[in-house]
Amino acid sequence: MSTVVRRWSSVVSQMLVMIALCITSALAAAQPKPVVLKGGKLLTVTHGTVENGVLVMQDGKIAALGAASSIKIPKDARIIDVTGMTIYPGLIDSETHLGLTEIAAEVTTNDMVEPSDEISPQMHVYDAFHAESELIPVTRLNGITNAIVAPDNADTLPGQDSFVQLDGKSATDMLLIRDIAMPLNFTGDQRRNETWEKRKFPSTRMGLAAQLRQAFLDAQHYAQEWADYEKKKSDTSSDKDKKGPPSPPKHDLKLEALLPYLDGIKSIVLAAEGASDLETAVNLANEFHLKFVLNHISHSQPVLDYVASLKVPVIVGPIYENPKPDERYDAVYSLPAQLQKRGVQIAFASYNAHDARNLPYQAGFATAFGLPYDEALKAITLNPAQIWGVADKLGSLDVGKTANVVVANGDPLDLKTDVKQVFIEGREVPMTSRQTRLRDQYSAH
Description:
Blueprint lengths: L2 H28 L4 E9 L5 E10 L2 E7 L10 E4 L4 E4 L1 E6 L38 H6 L3 E6 L11 E5 L5 H4 E11 L19 H29 L4 H6 L9 H10 L4 E5 L3 H13 L4 E4 L8 H7 L3 E3 L14 H11 L4 E3 L10 H9 L5 H6 L3 H6 L17 E4 L10 E6 L2 E2 L5 H10 L2
Parallel strand pairs: 1-4, 1-5, 6-7, 9-10, 10-11, 11-12, 12-13
Antiparallel strand pairs: 1-2, 2-3, 5-14, 7-8, 8-9, 14-15, 15-16
């Protein structure tokens, strides 16, 4: 080998080594350092409380947690001293309108419901979800990191819910599960009987039930038509050659949207307030073998044993609702405790966008009326995660789960507590909102 060739080979080798070192350095720089919360009280939800704890977040997940004496802190970690603080999992709102409304009195900012048709299962929240809503940071700042976003309940079948995370570059990042469930509302508010002049079908509860029943029957018939078509398409008999290929049925988005629910793949969220409405709605769901979660049963105290016998979860709230004239003053406040005593799994919801930040206080109020503290905390963390099928990722402080973590200066259910920092997928979320910006702008003068 000539001297020139040897020299060139040596230069190439050095260049390759330098390139490899540069790539390695770039990759190391791109990898975010582990973040360690040290010295705080950990409310794990699944395995008790850890005083003077350590929580390690890395690559968007909880990498380690436990007593300070038992956790080895990575050498390159960024350590945040949270002594005196309380650390708990991000809270989950089981029904809200976040991203669908901005100013309640301004119709151009509201996308909560499509009023043209009472039966609209083909409507999808994800098509209207507005990730830039100013209400999202306001909610997030109080420790709510995830939510079920649902259409308004003015229709019996208003569309399909989405499960969102309250941080991301765009709606695509924030929409974790696009069609997670479908509301079926049977509270009486869905009747088209506002005035005698504009009254139309369905203007009675009989009409609501009949319309729902027909929709599910039509969907079953539609499914059978497609099954028959697929069977004919796969038929290899000689008659097929004579008649030609079969024609497919016409696609119907409304009926197709109902099929995953008729097949038991997804759950209906069944809303009914009073006892008689509740039984009618449940009978309808059972008629079509629908999986369901109960919702809005605030005024069903007389039939709570019946509710417990159904062995389904219940979304409770809003706990600030007034009792009916024939109810005890504490009927709504005590409902969560009454359900929990009967073995019913409960979760809280704000049913709102502007006041979704008050979710933890609903659980707090319920503790004053008999709900055990640990169960109240579960009802805004682990229980909703289990109900919505995301408990492998959210709802508690456990190794391997998504690092949606809240740092606060006190009890999460206490009105006096201030949230100091929220982490979503291990990222420090800016603790600012339109409200804080206005506060800072005008307090400076």
